[in-house]
Amino acid sequence: MTKKVLLIEDEPHIVEALSFLLRRESWQVEIHNDGIGAVNKVSELTPDLVILDVMLPNIGGMEILHDIRQNRQTAQTPVLMLTAKGQQKDRKAAEDAGASLFMTKPFSNQEIVANIRELVS
Amino acid sequence: MARSLIGTRIRERRRAKKLSQTMLAEKAGISTSYMNLIEHNHRSIAGRTLLSIAESLEVDPKELTEGADHLVLTQLQEAANLISEKNVELNRLEEFVGRYPGWSNLCAKLYENIQQQEQRLQALSDRLGHDPFFSEAMHLMLSNVTVLHSTSDILATTDEIPEAQFQKFIQNMKTESERLSDTITKLLSYFDETTSTETQSPMLAPSKLDQFWEMHDYHLFELEKPELNPKAQIKKMMAAWNFQESGEQRLAEALVERYAKVADQLPLDDFVNAAVDYLYNPIFLAQKFNCELHDVFFRFAHLPSEYDGQTLPQFGLIECDGSGGVLFRKPLKTLSLPHKSSACPLWPLYRAISQPMQPVRAIMETPTGESFLTVSQAVWSGLNNYTVPPTVKSAMVFTSDYQRFLPTHERRALPTIKVGMSCEICPRNNCSARRSDSILDS
Lengths: 121, 442
Fold this sequence. Notes:
The structure holds 2 protein chains of 2 kinds.
Chain A: E1 4-8, H1 12-24, E2 28-32, H2 38-45, E3 49-53, H3 61-70, E4 79-83, H4 88-97, E5 101-104, H5 109-120
Parallel strand pairs in A: 1-2, 1-3, 3-4, 4-5
Chain B: H1 5-16, H2 21-28, H3 32-39, H4 47-56, H5 61-64, H6 70-83, H7 93-99, H8 101-130, H9 132-157, H10 163-196, H11 208-215, H12 230-241, H13 246-265, H14 268-277, H15 282-289, H16 293-301, E1 306-307, E2 310-311, E3 316-321, E4 326-330, H17 348-351, E5 360-365, E6 371-381, E7 391-399, H18 408-413, E8 416-418
Parallel strand pairs in B: 5-8
Antiparallel strand pairs in B: 1-2, 3-4, 3-7, 5-6, 6-7
Helix pairs in contact in B: 1-7, 2-3, 2-4, 6-8, 7-8, 9-10, 12-13, 15-16
């Protein structure tokens, strides 16, 4: 069965590259590019994985993650956090908020695909 | 400073003038044996004898009395405490200062210099870590590099890419390369500009008053205990710091006196316990201690980082007048504050000015994603005067540690205000409060 990945990221060129990588793996890709409405999108699509950027317009990724974890319907959805900040405290904050995995930009295509494979399996 | 040093100083200055003890005694009109006792600190002197010896040595009597070396002694004591060198003969410090005034002055100056360099380094480090422009530029560059890295890898490792997609990727790489180049150029130019004005920059050349607060970590433990005689402690602090500019001296004195008054009114132990009980709500605390909200703000800003085994939330504070001129500032590592002029007009600090006495509570979010709980209030000053219009003084206390004490339902009920530092380095382009263009990439 095709796995569904929701990509919440506002940078269009990153979205384009990541979408290509995910579709190449035959995964279904859904895209949302704003903090507003992101949690509703997760509830509505019930994806197998959410790739969530930390720095989003209007509502930050950390708050979205918090809301995903608070919502009974989405609480168990794996979330891969993407951030340009790689500091230990950011990693810790993401882990505390319930991130399944935390990756920093720039990421390796091979590594992100391998991690996604593991998370959706 | 011990009186015993006077004899040692007399001996050193006599030797420097190549006078024998007998010659100096004769000049000063006293016996050689008495001079010997004085020089060995077995007799204290003052009045006429002191004046005649000083005159014979052609020095100001003050140079022989205790005041001259006070600052040097304090600085050397501080240096010994700070560096914790076990082999320093602290019990012979007075003797060292008395016998070798030149060397001790040099050591004190070197210590002062090290302190200043450390402050400067700290300011530079803070700047790099929390400068919104630098942070935004790094974020942009990482995004650019992510696209370039990921897209080029796709192009290099994928055999068949549809032509339209291929062309799109090429175009994306071209756009991101241009953006990267543009961001780097702006970043270099930004650092060039800031470096050229560095000597004038208050950020990198903090005033002595800033240094005073930073060195004490904004907490004056000497003034927390009434039995230590706060007035005497203030006098000692002012003498040790020796503020050169009279305006700065007055300001420092006023602030330290205010600290002592607030410490007396809101004793640390009671205040910390009450703050924990009242979830750091300044309005409740002001009611409990029957004081002004500004006093609670001031107390928050001067709490120690740890108390009675518990880590306390750290609060910053900014106070300004009605024109936005900064009166007091305590920045946090996560939020720098302007030194003199106003910051982003959206800060609740300025909103409070439009509704004096009404406290304003809001979450303030910076472009780098840091969020702060803020409480602000403006108060009237100079009322009851027919001729001079009243003025307002606004204060805003803020903390990023609020998750520790602010209940989630209260947090959610608070408005979040997206602010910047100043327009020039603010990436929020569609801001209604913008006064000038941002130098950041749109």
